[in-house]
Amino acid sequence: MFPKVHAGMDVEMNSNMDCGKSKGIIGEKSLQILVDKMKKYPVSIWRTVWKVGREDPRRVMHAAKVGVALTLVSLLYLLQPLGQNAIWAVMTVVVVLEFTAGATLCKGLNRGLGTLLAGSLAFFIEYIATESGHVFRAIFIGAAVFLIGAAATYIRFIPYIRKNYDYGVVIFLLTFNLITVSSYRVDNVMKITHDRFFTIAIGCGVCLVMSLLVFPNWSGEELHSSTVFKLEGLARSIEACVNEYFIEQDQIEANQEKSSAEDPIYQGYKAVLDSKSFDETMALHASWEPRHSRHCYRFPWQQYVKLGNVLRHFGYTVVALHGCLRTEIQTPRSVRGLFKDPSIRLAGEVSKGLMELANSIRNRRHCSPEILSDHLHEALQDLNTAIKSQPRLFLGSNSNQATNMLALAAAHATSQKNAKNSSGGGGVSLSSVKTDSSALMEWKSKRESSERKFLRPQLSKLAITSLEFSEALPFAAFAALLVETVAKLDNVIEEVEELGRIAGFKEYERGDENIVVTSDKPQVIDVTQNQLPSHGVD
Description:
The protein is mainly alpha-helical. It contains 20 helices and no strands. The longest helix is centred in the first third of the chain and has 54 residues, at about 1-55. The radius of gyration is 36 Å and the shape is elongated. The protein starts with a helix and ends in a 35-residue tail after the last helix. Mean pLDDT is about 75; it is low at about 1-5, about 395-415, about 420-435, about 450-455 and about 515-525.
């Protein structure tokens, strides 16, 4: 008996030792993985930092400008020529200094004007409260804070104020309450007003100098470059989408493995769909900027916003065109090949037109009179002819070929079930079924319900694929969207021509560069990534 007990204890001890060894091995592997990640982490950080600066070197310059501005205003606090109130200058630089000169001007002037008005009104309120006597002073200050606070907040709902001066109203409200409420405990309210306004003026002055005079970045140029980038992105998306629609079967799997972030088609139109807020903000900031161009006249920045709206509607068509590549029901590639040549030529001409528009805006000149060339109309006519030459694919035959869809689905389900049973996949055998009536009814009900669950998802696909004209329907949708891009290209051309007329673009000359559409990476920087989010007012 005892040897058996000892044998059981030995087995248990051996199993515990094996478990301990396995846990130790797992712990060592986890530690090794952690060490490897820690070794790669500095390299990953350095690559990210290098990539951000390489994409747009102006980001490095802006970071240096902010550092210099903070150093200059920090001297006011460190050397204490203005006392403790010099910290307001540091806070002003942090909040006001933006990437573009227009954004800095907008926030700087709003902050300065709001502080000046709030200080003046607070001094006037303090003067009246002091003259009214000590009894009514607290009541008067409380009533003034309520009325001014409610009025200033209500004014912010006015669309024009909310669009142009919302930041100034917030600064006015903050400064007025700080000065008015603190004046009840502090005697020299004039000194508080003077110090705050003076330090904020210094901070705004440093920001304006750094933005306007030291390697300035103009909001108007950002909007201009963004428009060029969007046009080129749409041109690449259309051409890539049509080329992918007609590629061979062996290349499809490689393209489907790419995520949406790596998809060149998605990357092309993504910037267009997400540009509404950016366009409106850049147009607003550009309206604050001085006339800095060589010809010293203002550009119609709101016309860029209108052009952006037209490009977004064009982008919606490209999104639908891209969706045709991912539909469940696809036209056979043998049928697609009948329309490959005119479709690719048509997409190439549309892309060429968009690239010509992008180059005309980049060079500030009118687009070529031959932008809608004869090649575009020939490709459109050839596609129309190719579709008309295959009426049976789109209209079907006149004979009645009605089919019992339920019978087809049942046959398909039976074949699937027989294949599963023959492979030993868990089919139900007759010997396992009870012979009593209640069990037989239960088994029949379960069998019918399971077959219905299997038939339901198959019924719709079999019904669609059995129709003779259904194989050409997906391509009909694709072709209709491709023709729609030609129609919407006219709207884009009209807006670009209107922009050139209002902005005074130079006339097109025969010596201008030819347009070559490539699928390389864009030469224009995606300037939408340069806008940093704004946080609190102070």
